[in-house]
Design brief:
This protein is of the alpha+beta class. It is 14% helix and 25% strand. The protein has two helices and six strands; from the N terminus they run ββαββββα. The chain has helices spanning 38-48, 122-130, and strands at 4-10, 19-22, 78-86, 98-106, 111-115, 118-120. It has a six-stranded antiparallel sheet. β1 (4-10) and β2 (19-22) form a beta hairpin. The two termini are 23 Å apart. The chain binds adenosine-5'-triphosphate and magnesium ion. Magnesium ion binds at residues 38-39.
Amino acid sequence: MTKINRISIHGFKSFAHKTDIPFDKKYNVILGPNGSGKSNVGDAVCFVLGRLSAKSMRAEKAANLIFNGGKSKKPANQGTVEMAFCNENKVFPHDAKEVLLSRTITKKGSSVYKINGKKRTRTEVLDTLSHAKINPDGYNMILQGD
Ligand code: ATP
Ligand code: MG
């Protein structure tokens, strides 16, 4: 088993500024008013794990996952979600105590994945995640309506 140590969201959906969300060791709950971005955090988790269907992350197309400027701000050029996984029990085949996964989406809709700062293909990301039995379309993420 692994656990999420923290998530960082920047230019993705309603997160214009880089936002770091630390996760506690036990369970974590996200609270906030309607429309404040709670479900967008769930979409960010699906996104960084390599999910391909934009619609399942509540966007018409992949480029719409990028912060659109809202009513008065400048739209972002790209959107990034970074997730730090605990690797203290060596679930992943890496020496470090933490594994850092990130995905950036550009306006053209293409994605760049990185593991510990190094560019990786989506297949390599899925291979790494499979060590922790994580699958971007699996039931480790249960969405509203599922
Ligand atoms: P509820 O309690 O109603 O479920 P919520 O906290 O889950 O609300 P979200 O659905 O996460 O809210 O966030 C909705 C907000 O995200 C809306 O204001 C919407 O305009 C904004 N949003 C979605 N996509 C983008 C985007 N690409 N750029 C900027 N804002 C976006
Ligand atoms: Mg919601």
